[in-house]
Design goal:
The protein is built from 22 helices and 18 strands. The protein is globular. Bound molecules: thiamine diphosphate and magnesium ion. Magnesium ion (MG) binds next to helix 17.
Length: 546
Amino acid sequence: MKASDLFVKALENEGVEFVFGIPGEENLDFLNSLSRSQIRLILTRHEQAAGFMAATYGRLTGKAGVCLSTLGPGATNLVTAAAYAQLGGMPMVMITGQKPVKSSKQGQFQIVDIVDMMRPLTKYTHQIVSGSNIPSRVREAFRLAQEERPGAAHLELPEDIAREETHEPVLKASVSRRPTAETKGVTAAIERIQSATHPLVLVGAAANRRLTSHMLRQFIECCGIPFVTTQMGKGVVDETHPLFLGNTALSSHDFVHCAIDCADLIINVGHDVIEKPPFFMSTGGVDVIHINFFSASVDPVYFPQFEVIGDIANSVWQICERIVKQPHWDFSRFMQVKQAVESHLNEGIQDNRFPLTPQCLVADVRKVMPEESIITLDNGIYKIWFARNYKACHPNTVLLDNALATMGAGLPSAMAARLVYPERKVMAICGDGGFLMNSQEMETAVRLKMNLVVLLLRDNAYGMIRWKQSNMGFDDYGLEFGNPDFVKYAESYGAHGYRVESAEQFVSLMEECHRTPGVHLIDAPVDYSENDRILNHEIKEKSSLL
Ligand SMILES: Cc1ncc(C[n+]2csc(CCOP(=O)(O)OP(=O)(O)O)c2C)c(N)n1
Ligand SMILES: [Mg+2]
């Protein structure tokens, strides 16, 4: 068998459904083998977008998403996506080509040491030097990419190796279960929760990676302990739940931090330091129980006193089985915070000002998106508004990146969500800066006949940085740009383009887009003039009075 055929068989053996990417001449044997497989090639217009799609496929399914590029420039284009998957805990396997390694007549043309380049960005990076190693190296790449904490893995398949004859069989994954927490650690956690007066649950990214939703909800309801979410922990437990207090979109000085400040114990389910801190620990401050698949990396802002390490759902189940609800638990202050959060979240949601205000925009998007639908966010100031104001009802229905926090992933991740969940409504929400970093994928989406809505928030600027600039007392300088006519831009791809002309028209326009097949781009002018007043001042002042 040709080694590239064996490579594709090894991918089939891992259950791979899609390979996202752009082949180069060094991948042509692999591409030819792929053409005879059930695995679908999703040809993209930039390798970075292919990487974002593969990572999001991994994020949604728990199975590594696969992306493909050529050597040199194709592989260097995968760098940001590798970091996105690695920091975000998303399983992804990257396959890159290379010139022949045994003998080559091309000098150093296009040759970069990709294996070394990928080292700080991956859990595993390896050059395949013999066809017979393919089964074990592919299995190892998938094992490491998928095992907690998930991340990126990289395999380089040189041209001459891909063409070799080989006779190895593929290797099946072993039958195994994730390790579970040991009883004494669970007992210590239970005792600490029972002795606390104001325990609070925090739900973070890892809880969104596996099936933890059911057990966690049961635990919260059995004990009646209120919960808050991190940006990447949204939706694990329904945020419309009466015990939901709010999201830690801001790191401090929001209403939700009044609850965190009052808590004497935080039961931290699935958060780790890769996310922007939802709160800051300090010496002599609140105690934290870290419940996660892996132990906590110690950091000046995070040094939990207790750890329950193992499968999260199992740990929560063990705690739930043995914990006794305590009469001295006092959640009255938390519920006061909830009231303040809810009334602040309702402010401005019916504001008919045009251009649209962020509060109104988020509320309108929530109105048109059914509970199980998915929004994917690019990176900009609106991410804070969505994390804070948009209530997620189901796991992984708000896909945002609070780890690498890169721009450019909004559209590709929506496309991956579309492929994984063809029956759900999917909307990408992007700034005019981030959208144009991967807008070429509109062509891919149209070619694949996707039903997809892209909501483009236009302030003709890198708004997030302008907000920070103003917050830091700097003059407004250097962050405004011009834009193409987005309606014509969409149409030039064969997509539908719209421009929002009034606040009243916005909801019906989004509904019409969701009803009509095809790719839709909505150019929505936004009014960010109050970002600084609300996010930097008003929230701080009002919450300090609580
Ligand atoms: C690839 C990348 N480059 C730069 C940044 C820094 N950055 C964060 S948000 C932002 C501005 C985003 O602008 P836009 O997409 O228009 O969204 P807005 O904040 O204006 O709504 C920038 C430059 C980043 N996070 N990622
Ligand atoms: Mg912008």
